[in-house]
Design brief:
11-stranded mixed β-sheet, alpha/beta, 23 strands, Protein-Tyrosine Phosphatase, Chain A, 25% strand, globular, 473 residues, UDP-N-acetylmuramoyl-L-alanine:D-glutamate ligase, Udp-n-acetylmuramoylalanyl-d-glutamate--2,6- Diaminopimelate Ligase, Chain: A, domain 1, 14 helices, 6-stranded mixed β-sheet
Length: 473
């Protein structure tokens, strides 16, 4: 990596609104904006050091360093500025279409219970010593990554488990990071469209970029694209599978206790067989457990510790059972595309609910293909659908719901543009034996409406509505 003369700067910025005296401004080129256009604004706020991909029309006292790719420059600058904090941590990167958040949090919880100090970066935010900081992206920009690594080191962390999105690889957010372990969960078409990936091949290629920079790659070899990931790997490869991998499962059974719908199974690794339990149901939970078991062993955790702590792990917004109604079950899950919704609904069906009710919407302004796939999955598995909003942004929520409902066929449904009203309706009209899945929001504590993040807690709405029902009774 190139080493830069930082000229005594006190911070690095790529948002001109944060520019000030003694900061360096990096002109990033994005899908919707070009940082070069804001260089003058940064100059007016006191910045005199600029990194750009083309000449800037600035006064003579501005020093402009030209770079081939300012995103790579931002990563290298940030790494140097924070004194290479990534080298002081054991970093585990997890990529895939689904399972990243759940698996990363399970691994971190096991590590922490086993006496290590593991932080997390991902969809649920940055979590250091139990303190959560929200993030805009699943994988933050490189400056935020290296700053977070530095915060982790200062807080006494020795491990970081981070989700690695395909966009993070494409946009060089993870440039410079050497991953001790890279993990592949699975792959299916997603994030393809304007402003994201041009096609599935590009999406897959970006995902595979993690394994070219990982010392050890842990790969789900049951996935159709696993061989592509294995070919991209530069270090050792360990596979996991419910069929025949280095770490595999058999004799899978339901496991339940009050407040728990889980699975247990025999895990075979290096010819040693152990029984594992995880407090979420379905085959995807088996994959998550196998992955966590394999990764934690690479981090020096013993098999006995994993066996003990795995059943204790919980992930907010991932098959989260809300103890609210006495005769029916409410589950909050982040399932927001067809594949993840199908996995959750198929799993719930195994427990034979009297009625399976699913509440969901689809995000506005992007990933339009999800609307049809979500609706078609709901049509196949649900007894009743509540169509509503899910971060509509600047798109008319009623138009999104119209599109969803057009694919529901004969499945009975009701619609609410206001998601609060939709959740209240679901809880108020629950019947004994029902299972209600609130899909799409998961851990999120806001609704993106227009350009505003409106506070929103699905969990709180369920609890408050159930309390009102009990008060009336």
């Amino acid at each position: 990596m190139m080493k830069y003369d930082l000229y005594g700067i006190k911070d690095i910025v790529y948002d001109s609104r944060k520019a000030a005296l003694n900061t360096a401004f990096v002109c990033l080129v994005g899908a919707k904006s070009d940082g070069h256009k804001f260089a003058q604004m940064a100059y007016d706020k006191g910045t005199r050091l600029f990194f750009a991909q083309k000449d800037l029309a600035l006064p003579e006292d501005a020093k402009v360093i030209l770079c081939e790719d300012t995103r790579i420059a931002l990563a290298e600058l940030s790494r140097q500025f924070f004194d290479y904090p990534d080298k002081k941590l054991k970093i585990i990167g997890i990529t895939g279409t689904k399972g990243k958040t759940t698996t990363s949090n399970i691994i971190a919880q096991i590590l922490n219970k086993s006496g290590k100090n593991a932080a997390v970066i991902g969809t649920n935010g940055i979590i250091i010593n139990g303190v959560r900081t929200p993030t805009v992206n699943t994988t933050p920009e490189s400056y935020e990554l290296y700053r977070s690594f530095n915060d982790m080191v200062n807080a006494g962390c020795d491990h970081c488990i981070m989700e690695v999105s395909s966009q993070a690889v494409k946009l060089n957010r993870i440039h410079g990071i050497e991953f001790d372990v890279g993990v592949f969960t699975n792959l299916s078409p997603d994030h393809i469209g304007e402003g994201e990936h041009a096609d599935y091949n590009e999406y897959r290629t970006c995902k595979a970029g993690l394994f070219a920079r990982s010392k050890v790659s842990v790969i789900n070899c049951d996935d159709d694209d696993s061989s592509y990931m294995i070919e991209a790997a530069s270090g050792n490869v360990i596979t996991y599978s419910v069929k025949d991998g280095d770490c595999c499962a058999d004799d899978i059974k339901h496991w339940s206790e009050p407040g728990v719908l889980g699975v247990k199974f025999n895990c075979r690794y290096n010819d040693v067989i152990t029984e594992l339990k995880i407090a979420t149901p379905g085959i995807y939970s088996v994959y998550n457990a196998l992955c966590a078991y394999t990764v934690c062993l690479q981090c020096g955790v013993t098999s006995a510790q994993i066996i003990k702590y795995l059943p204790m792990t919980r992930v907010k917004g991932r098959f989260e059972i809300v103890d609210a109604l006495p005769d029916s079950t409410v589950i909050i899950d982040y399932a927001h595309n067809g594949l993840s919704l199908e996995s959750v609904l198929k799993t719930i069906k195994e427990y034979e609910p009297k009625r399976l009710i699913v509440l969901f919407g689809s995000v506005g302004e992007r990933t339009q293909l999800r609307r049809r796939e979500l609706a078609e999955v709901a049509r196949e598995y649900a007894d009743f659908v509540i169509a509503t909003s899910d971060n509509p942004g600047n798109e008319d929520p009623d138009k999104i719901i119209d599109e969803i409902c057009s694919y529901l066929g004969d499945t009975p449904y009701i619609r609410f543009a206001d998601r609060v009203e939709a959740v209240e309706y679901a809880v108020t009209n629950a019947l004994p034996g029902d299972v209600i899945l609130l899909a799409g929001k998961g851990h999120e504590d806001y609704q993106l409406i227009g350009n505003e993040k409106v506070p929103f807690s699905e969990y709180d709405i369920v609890i408050n509505t159930a309390q009102k029902i009990r008060a009336i009774v």
